Structures are given as C-alpha cells and as structure tokens.
Amino acid sequence: MKIATAAYPVSWCPTWEIYAQKQRDWVQLAASNGADLLVFPEYAAMELAAQAGEAAAGDIQGSIDAVSARVPKLNTLFGDLAKEFSLHILAPSAPVREAERTVNRATLFTPTGAAGHQDKQIMTRFEREDWGISSGGPLKIFETTLGKIGVLICYDSEFPLLARALVEAGAEIILVPSCTEALEGYWRVRVGAMARALEGQCVTVMASLIGTEPRLFGVESNTGMGGIFAPMDEGFPPTGVMAEGSLNKAGWTYATLDAAKIGHIRADGHVLGVQHWSEQPARAGEIIIEPLRAK
C-alpha cells in the first residue's frame, strides 16, 4: 500500500463550499499520486468553526459547538471522498458533544462506505484544564483490506501501554494524527510514535497540523510535519524513518509499505520485541538498592 500523511495548514474557511473544496483538493492530490491510505491531523476540523463567524470561532464553547454541529456533514464529505477516490481516509479529528461530555474523535472511512471512529484516550493539560475535552470510548482495531489499523491521537502515542494493547490485538499500522503548538510538542509526539513502532514492531503514521490562524480557538499556532516510522529491522530503514516531510511545509508525505514485512520481523526479526515484551515484569519485579561506597 502507499500511505500519505499530511502536514496540513490551518486556514479560515468561512463557507462550507470553501472548506469542502479544500478537502477535495487535498484528497485528489494524494489519490493522483497513488495513495491508498490518507491521514489528516488532529483538530484540523476546527476550521469548520469559521462558518459560525469570528465571535464563535474564537470562543472556547462557541468553537466546540460550531464544529460539533458540523461533524455529521464532515463525515458525509469524507465518506463520499473515500468512495469516489477508492481510498481509506482518517479524517481530521474534531470535538464532538456526547451527552454531558465532549470527546476528541477521529473517523476512518473506507472505499466501501464503512466507517469507524476512535476517541482520544488521555487528555493534555490544555484539553483538561482549558477546553473541557474528556476521554472517550475504548481503543479499537479497524480490520480493513489494508490490514489491522489502530489510532492513537497525538498525546496517546506517548503512552506505551495503549500501543501495546493495540499490538496485542493485532494492529500492524498505528495512525497518529497530531496537533502541537510548539516544536517540543511535535518532538514529544514524534519520539512517542517512533518508540511505539520500535516496541510494537509496527508502522506508525504521524500527521501534523501546521500554520497560524488567530481567529480559531485552540489551533491559533501549530508546528509539525508528516512522518512514517518503522522498526529498525530487516526490510525497513536503519533509522526507522520511512519518510518525513519538512518542518512546517504544507503537503503530503508518502511511503510504500509491504505489510507482510511486519509479520516477518515479528516472527523472525533481528530482535523480537513483541515476543519478548512479557519478560519485563519478572525482571522489573525486584529492584536491589546497592550503595556504592569508596573503600
């Protein structure tokens, strides 16, 4: 399969027509380059708030309400694009109101019209303390014609037990849509994504929101680039970097993946991290404190 992951520039889209055309242009470009799987970033759907006007888009609750109300229309758009271009697409994540809580949700669309969503598991301080975003539903594995796919939204990629649960359930590819304001945030997520690829002997795909738009609450300033990461093992690059974009440069980053290589290294790689994971508890179960003193 050919994977395309986005460094997607946030912009002011005051009408649905402008927004929809932007998404179509991005999807069409990736399709024209032979992509099978597209990954858009976390919170890129905040662009939808512009349709409610500047006052709502710049307000904490106003922006959430404006975007959440338009998510059904967003889902229809990306569902249609996935079918039209015969692609799997992880659409931009969005805040979604569910009863008494708001979750951060990304939805994966398939060429057949099937779709499934993944909610973010662990909230950042900004999401908890300022935005009021809550943890959503459980982790999921999406069984697709491209393989078994999991999603860890941004901060989730920094927690190894989440990725481990996906790997133990069979995940071969983990998608990491991300939104980070500062360079250190980008690198936290990137290091997390690369570590999860190493530990889980899987491929991780990081997408980034980039650019500035001071009128959109929560995504005023963004830093990052696209990247596709693999275990440092037979059949993959020795650096673990299958492909990476350029910092803060808009566009798709592409890599071609033979998913059979993942099964091969899990069974007979130079190292067997997935198989040997279970040896950790016994080795970490007893720690000896040994004072070292000069004689």
What does this entry look like structurally?
- With 295 residues, the chain is an alpha/beta fold.
- The chain has one domain (2-282): Carbon-nitrogen hydrolase (Nitrilase/N-carbamoyl-D-aminoacid amidohydrolase), CATH 3.60.110.
- 34% of the residues lie in helices and 25% in strands.
- The protein is built from 9 helices and 15 strands.
- The chain has helices at 16-32, 54-57, 60-85, 125-131, 160-168, 183-200, 260-268, 273-276, 280-284; strands spanning 2-9, 37-39, 88-90, 94-98, 101-109, 115-119, 133-134, 142-144, 147-151, 173-178, 203-212, 221-222, 227-229, 241-244, 251-256.
- It has a 15-stranded mixed beta sheet that branches.
- α1 (16-32) crosses α3 (60-85) and α5 packs parallel to α6.
- The longest helix is centred in the first third of the chain and has 26 residues, at 60-85.
- It is globular, with a radius of gyration of 20 Å.
- The model has no long low-confidence stretch (mean pLDDT 96).
Summarize the structure.
The chain is α/β, with parallel strands linked by helices and 295 residues long. The chain contains 9 helices and 15 strands. Helix 1 (16-32) packs across helix 3 and helix 5 (160-168) runs parallel beside helix 6.
